[in-house]
Design brief:
This protein has six helices and seven strands. By secondary structure, the protein is α+β, with helices and mostly antiparallel strands. The strands form two sheets. Strands 1-2-3-4 form a four-stranded antiparallel β-sheet, covered by helices on one side. Helix 3 runs antiparallel to helix 6. The longest helix is centred in the N-terminal third of the chain and has 54 residues. It is elongated, with a radius of gyration of 40 Å.
């Protein structure tokens, strides 16, 4: 079965090759295969090859120039995207790992969760108060924009000392967050400058685009390809005069 299959493949390949050759050198079997017309076939092949080589060279050089444009544009966009992503991360940091919790207040590395609301630690002011008559502790959370939240802790569930210590812990965390925010602001300023520079750094892209246009223009005005095509037309005319059939 394998031998038969290979025989079929070989026969099919041979038939295809013969058909291709008859199309390449139209006019009959003798013109396509006989030694008598080898020089005529070579003359036609040389003319075809000259056109094919010039077109191939032009295509490769234009493709190379286009690839250079693509690489330059990709590098340009990639740099901007990287800086924008870093800026976004600095401007909107995540809340970080969970550190402690008391009642509804959950302390994270960079923020508080109070119920379903997130409160950034940077710029936050924490104040403790106690209503001795009712043994209720209060924690006031004043945000940078002046908004204030009040959390109530009943003394029978949350002892005064526990709430005081937690309040101090929140305030210290806010102070640490302020220092980190100051550093972050400096990094943001640097990245904003880098982003501006990255957006203005269009010279590699412009240079690559100019080279692409020059390459297209050079091949578009190159007289060699029209000459080669004219020579191919002459070779086709000669073949047609010889065989009565015009080749492709």
């Amino acid at each position: 079965m394998s031998a038969i299959w290979w025989l079929v493949v070989v026969v099919a390949f041979g038939v295809g090759w013969v058909a291709w050759r008859l199309v390449q050198y139209p006019g009959g079997w003798a013109y396509a295969f006989h030694e008598q017309y080898r020089a005529d076939r070579e003359f036609l092949d040389d003319a075809r090859g000259a056109v094919r080589e010039l077109k191939g060279t032009a295509r490769r050089e234009v493709q190379q120039a286009q690839s250079a444009v693509t690489r330059a544009e990709k590098a340009y966009r990639s740099r901007i995207s990287r800086v924008e992503a870093e800026l976004q991360q600095l401007r909107t940091p995540n809340r970080g790992d969970r550190v402690a919790q008391l009642g509804q207040i959950v302390l994270h590395e960079h923020a508080l969760l109070v119920g379903d609301d997130e409160v950034r630690l940077a710029g936050l002011h924490v104040r403790f108060d106690l209503a001795r008559s009712t043994h209720v502790s209060y924690v006031y959370l004043t945000q940078p924009d002046g908004r204030e939240r009040l959390e109530r802790f009943a003394g029978d569930e949350f002892p005064e000392d526990t709430v005081r210590q937690f309040s101090v812990r929140l305030q210290n965390a806010a102070v640490t967050a302020n220092r980190l925010q100051a550093l972050r602001d400096g990094d943001i300023h640097k990245l904003e400058a880098e982003l501006s520079e990255a957006r203005e750094a269009t010279e590699p892209v412009e240079t690559a685009r100019e080279l692409l246009e020059e390459t297209r223009a050079r091949h578009g005005s190159d007289p060699q390809l029209p000459k080669a095509r004219a020579a191919l037309d002459d070779a086709r005319d000669v073949w047609q005069e010889l065989t009565g059939r015009r080749p492709l």
